[in-house]
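Weekly puzzle thread! Below is a chain. First person to post its structure in token form gets bragging rights.
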Amino acid sequence: MELLKVLNSFLLAFALELVALVFVVYVAWTGFANIWLRLLFGAVCLVIFVVLWGRILHRKRRCV
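Winning reply:
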């Protein structure tokens, strides 16, 4: 039963991180009318978010 609780918290954290990534790309996508600017801005925002999330936020918390 303890294994199920730990697995469940990891899956919830993973799902929330995916939702955050999708939200960042959606916000970046709606910022411009030109398709190339949308793609560029979406990719840049995604990379910045992933780097900041990995370097700052994810290190400070524990799922268990």
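Puzzle host: Confirmed. Bonus trivia for everyone else. The mean pLDDT is 83.
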